[in-house]
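Problem statement: downstream parser choked on a complex file, so we are re-checking the raw output for the S-adenosyl-L-homocysteine run. The parser issue turned out to be on our end (a line-ending mismatch), but while we're here, posting the original submission so the record is complete.
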Amino acid sequence: MNKRKNKGYKDSGKKRFDKKNGKQNTKPGKQAGGNPKGKQKNVTAKVTCSGLSKEGKGIIQWEGKQLEVPHLMPGETAEVLVSKKGRYVNAELKRVIKPSEDRVTPPCQYYFQCGGCQLQHMNEQAQTRFKQETVKALMKPFGKPEPILTMDHPYDYRNKSHTTFGMNQHRQVIGGLYAQHTHQIIPMERCLIHDPKADEIVETIKDILKHSKMQPYNEDTGQGFLRHVLVKVGKVSGEIMVVLVVASPVFKGKNNFVKALRKAHPEITTLLMNVNNRGTSMVLGDQEKVLFGKGTITDTLCGLEFEISAKSFYQINPAQTEKLYGKAIEMAELTGKETVVDAYSGIGTISLIASRKAGKVIGVELNKDAVRDAIRNSKRNGVKNARFYQGDAGEFMVQMAARGEKADVVIMDPPRSGSDEAFLSSIVKLEPKRVVYVSCNPETQARDMKYLTANGYKVEGIQPVDMFPQTHHVESVAKLVRKEEAGNR
Ligand code: SAH
């Protein structure tokens, strides 16, 4: 068991309260009256943690209010620092008095400042239990989920890394992740969930910068050049893409930089420059230039090859993705005849895997680069029965329904915000026999499943998958069947 020092706990669970209903309001923005500017009051309180929030924070009661404390575990007693300013109430862990048996020393030295991972202080069993319970609670109206599919080695899994560059107060080049809720860079050499090779490359780039005139970008002054570095690794192919996100198209000393980087890392297969001169928090800008290589990497997933460009979405944990897709295809129950719609299709991964067992597949995706990749990918794999369309999935489905078209199976994999009513109501019109809903956010998945189950569908299976170990995120795939269809079995 681990006894940790107070100074480790840097993070905090900022909460706001709406006096009217006494409920927590975590949304930023205007408050329902009152003066948030009041005097700050700090109190140290001894508390007992009663459970976990959906973000893996410890739940405590304080002066009749429910607060969430990062890094606190159920059953633990602890000293927390509660700061109150107007209606803002913030609780921070100071010292664990009675630790949980499931508490472990987080292997990452940056864990308490970074916030990118939220569960490293829990052992694997506790993480698994938390995720299982989260999905179970959200899916309660629909049925009991299967045991979550976990990962054997739950580290080093991310095939994509993102590092922000800047300078410290001594004007030394630093690179790392932003500290939680801030734009303050935590200098970092190794992130334990990144592919180790990606971190090695970033260290080399830091080194090159230190010995060149190239300056990291300064968000406050708008001066400097290098903003971020993205590294994408093909876990099976070994191909590596490096994207330098820069503030201006004028790359002074480009040749020397490229030469030094390639010399140190001959394994880099392509290098790109992406110009982002906007003041937004978007990482990638619109202008992209290939500095060497083909501008994309290829990787193998479920026996097929996929070409991935800088801006396209590709699942960040391919080992677990194979398990997830395997389940999704199993739930689709394809026999070789079906018309399948793969909505939110990205670079066509699910479409092309499904195409081997379907009559035809129609993929729809908003991102132009991803659609281009999907078309290229179908050619690369000799797939002749898949078509890809660029556009909003909801609009596309509305048009399909208006034309009176039918689909046997809809596989959907929307972003965290979930789907929308245009999309869901079109499903009801298209009357597919089965809907396979893949989701990286079971909360919005449950919301959308409520609509579908109220409109003719029945849930036949729910499978959680741990795609993001050490973080509170959990993936879930659900099988929904049209009720008449279910009755005919
Ligand atoms: N199924 C793919 C991608 C899933 S991620 C895979 O497993 O790799 C979700 C995808 O939805 C992203 O590619 C994103 O660009 C796309 N997307 C987001 N909003 C969309 C919308 N309104 N219509 C269609 N696609 C959308």
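For whoever reads this later: The chain has eleven helices and 23 strands.
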